[in-house]
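Title: Prediction job returns without error message
Component: structure pipeline
Severity: low
Priority: P3
Assignee: unassigned

Description:
Job completed but the reporter wants confirmation the result is attached to the right record. Sequence as submitted:
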Amino acid sequence: MTRLSPRLAALGVAGIAAIAAGIGTAASGAVAAAAARVAVSKSLVGTFRITAGRYAGGKAGGSFLRMVLPGGGKYFDNPDSRSPDKSYTLIGPGGQGGLATGRYQPNPSPVFDANGDARVNAIMSPQSFDGIAFSVASVAKNPQTGAKNPVPSIRLTGDTLSGQVDAVTAEWNGQYFAQGSSSVKGRYNPRTRAFLLTWSSPISGGPFNGFTGSWHLQGTFVPS
């Protein structure tokens, strides 16, 4: 016969049953809470409105681009950057405020002016890069390979963002550079809708062949 500890014996059958019920309730509550956390996964469709980049106190914030040199570890300095640290190219919102999900933000026509400066002004405003204005768009077809791009999509799970922006291209000096990614990561505050999105995209072809664009977008999400 199984012996009960003095404490369990003093409680008696009713007490033991109550304890078991309490344990069961707590376990059920924990399972329910875990299930709720897992269930909070949804697509964010709207515009990730970007906050203009800034650099102060030796630290960059807001939205910016850094170009990683071939081999990694070092960055290209943009002489036209407004940042004291020229490895940061600070960017600001374009006419549509930022990066949209669920739709493309294509190039205007013509894409470039007579000097090769990009006229694209939807996601970000054109920013001078090594003497020539560049900007970005999101397009249905990769201008370098001709492959079809899916529309940008971002998912929220808890406070974590993930998704793809394969359709993003950079336009500069009459040239196109695929700068999308299938591995976008970030954070999100459901209360304030503040977000951070980051991704890296290697550059193929042109004067920056072998470089990698490292993107950092920060701002506020506005649902459609």
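Comment from assignee: result matches the submitted record. Helices lie at 6-39.
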